[in-house]
Design brief:
The chain is α/β, with parallel strands linked by helices and about 240 residues long. Helices cover about 30% and strands about 20% of the residues. It has 8 helices and 9 strands. The chain has helices at about 5-15, 25-35, 80-90, 100-105, 120-125, 130, 150-160, 185-200; strands spanning about 40-50, 60-65, 75-80, 95, 115, 160-165, 170-180, 210-215, 225. The protein has a 4-stranded antiparallel β-sheet with strand order 7-1-8-9, covered by helices on one side. Helix 3 links the parallel strand 3 and strand 4 (about 95). The longest helix has 17 residues, at about 185-200. The N and C termini lie far apart (about 50 Å).
Length: about 240
């Protein structure tokens, strides 16, 4: 199988200075100058953190509202009944249900981006943890997706709030916008996410916290961002 890059990718790579680290603003501006694919590519943030996720006290996870959203239509389902279910429907949830929705997910249906549940529904929702957990879809109080106020949670998610979680290798990756965004929208979304990750630094983490940061778009080379401004070292 050939690993040959496309001509457009090679042209883009030639514009990214090898070995250089860029400021947020410069990285966003450069990203917009690269020869783009024919579709509106997703812009992705990637970082490697100096934590050991195998230790429970070094897990990094959280949620943050992006100032300009992600540019993506977010599909939201809600596990709820009664007034909370009606509020979720009125707030624009893509699907609302309880036992019936749990059975649908048990059958392997995961055609959604975010799952929200009321606290009362969580006992039953845990039955599908094996389906939702590995996909990062399990409702969690820490990310605001376990709540009785389903309407507010739906509004926040659809307005551009994203959840993030470090993986077992210490990496975080998240979509933060579209290539059609203005450079300042990309850099402001990046800044919001990085700021949230910095605030989520575990007290037990030692040494350099953010080792490297890259921003990229689909089918385009990554641009390395200078993490010095965000790097925290132990005293």
């Amino acid at each position: 199988m050939s690993n040959k890059r496309s001509k457009r990718y090679e042209q883009a790579a030639a514009l990214v200075e090898e070995g250089k680290v860029y400021s947020l603003d410069d990285a966003a501006a450069l990203l917009k100058k690269l020869p783009a694919p024919k579709f509106d590519a997703t812009v992705t943030f990637s970082a490697h953190l100096g934590v050991d996720p195998r230790k429970s006290d070094q897990m990094v996870r959280g949620s943050v509202p992006l100032p300009h959203g992600t540019g993506k239509k977010v599909r939201v389902i809600v596990f709820a009944s009664g007034d909370a279910a009606k509020a979720a429907t009125d707030a624009g949830a893509d699907e609302v249900g309880f036992e019936d929705l749990i059975k649908k997910v048990q059958g392997g249906w995961v055609d959604f981006d975010v799952a929200i549940a009321t606290p009362a529904a969580m006992t039953e929702v845990r039955k599908v943890a094996r389906v939702l957990g590995p996909r990062g879809l399990m409702p969690n109080p820490k990310t605001g997706t376990v709540t009785d106020d389903t309407a507010t949670a739906i509004s926040a998610v659809k307005a551009g709030r994203i959840d993030y979680k470090v993986d077992k290798s210490g990496n975080i990756a998240s979509a933060i916008g579209k290539l059609s965004f203005k450079p300042e929208q990309i850099s402001e979304n990046l800044a919001a996410l990085i700021d949230s990750i910095v605030k989520a630094k575990p007290a037990s983490a030692k040494g350099i916290y953010i080792n490297n940061v890259t921003v990229s778009a689909s089918m385009l080379p990554g641009i390395v961002i200078d993490p010095a401004v965000y790097t925290t070292t132990s005293k």
